[in-house]
Task: structure prediction
Amino acid sequence: MAFHDVLFLDSDPEWFAAYRDRFGTRYRSGTAPDPLFAELFHRAQERWEGKNHVSATPPDLGVSSDTERAARAGATGGEPVLDFAGQSTPYIDYQSIDVLLSLQHPRSPAPSELPFYILGQVKELLFKLVYEELVRVRSLLDGDRVPDAVWGLHRLRRVVELLVASWDVLGTLAPTEFNAFRDHLGQASGFQSYMYRMVEFALGNKAAELARAHRGVPHVHRQVQEALHAPSVYDAALRLLARRGAAIPAGVLERDFSAAYEPSDAVERAWAEVYRTGGPADETFLLAEALMGVAEAVGRWRSVHLLTVERIIGTKPGTGGTLGTAWLRRANEHRFFPELWTCRGLL
Ligand code: HEM
Ligand SMILES: N[C@@H](CC(=O)c1ccccc1NC=O)C(=O)O
Result:
């Protein structure tokens, strides 16, 4: 594939994606290529990625240093830099801020729709952070790096608390304010959040049937399936306990990770033993409590969601096809890391 292959981008999305990954930066960096090339590239980009596409490779910012920053502050007399070469600012370039701020499309004239819309997007971003951190914590546990995993879980818990706090804003939507735009949501529902589903899977709630909602969206379905089939952070914690001598049954360690987790008395006893023999100086004790912190925070997210929903729509059905609060109440009964909860009864 060569730069001049821009001629064929309109015919095949995969060919376009390969070309974009290789040469896309040349079309963004302001070093304008041939105008005909640019026209063909942007036409194909609009066709395959839509107007507000997410750039696969945002511009390179270069690498700075303390010395360079000190020299610049000297040169500006301590005032901010106001002149930038090219058609962007480094701030826009770093986090694609212009793309991010072009993604708000309320569907109704109701002023209350914008807070709902933006808070929904913020929550998706935070779900993504929670998911990525869970994957990282899982690999730290696989590598026996317990203090690093515990540190990661402490941060993760704070992110989940932020998600819980965000209900405060949505709780200010009066039923009438929500109803002013609700009909414009069609069948869209938070239930279809694939990032939330991936978080549930990474935490160990492998409700495989719920992945079905994403079957028609190949790039999403791939990610959801990967999260479904991978071991959860809890599976990783149990394997770690086993490596440290706990009597975890083979059937728990070598299970089908995509199947619903069946709680086990032996695992419950193993966690009880962690609490009996350990204390705050013990790695597995700290791990147990850090996991509980996350499980409790996600449980709180679920329960504040339920309360907020009840406050806004009462007993009305949801947009996603369920009876609403009755369905959410049942989802609230589930506990992540179940034996960590039940082992309390043995202590
Ligand atoms: C403020 C108005 C909201 C109402 C009235 C509401 C209502 C509901 C209802 C009734 C359900 C059950 C599925 C259905 O039939 O739709 C549900 C599920 C869900 N909602 Fe909300 N919701 C609201 C806001 C949000 C927001 C802002 C988020 C976060 C992005 C969210 C995330 C979810 C998730 C992840 C589920 C699936 C829960 C699970 O699988 O256990 N909801 N919601
Ligand atoms: N299930 C909600 C609607 C809902 O949660 C929703 C709808 C569209 C886009 C996002 C939503 N929720 C999360 O942001 C309802 O029954 O009104």
In short: The mean pLDDT is 94. The pocket of N'-Formylkynurenine (ligand 2) is lined by residues 120, 182, 185, 188-190, 318-320 (CB under 6 Å). The radius of gyration is 25 Å.
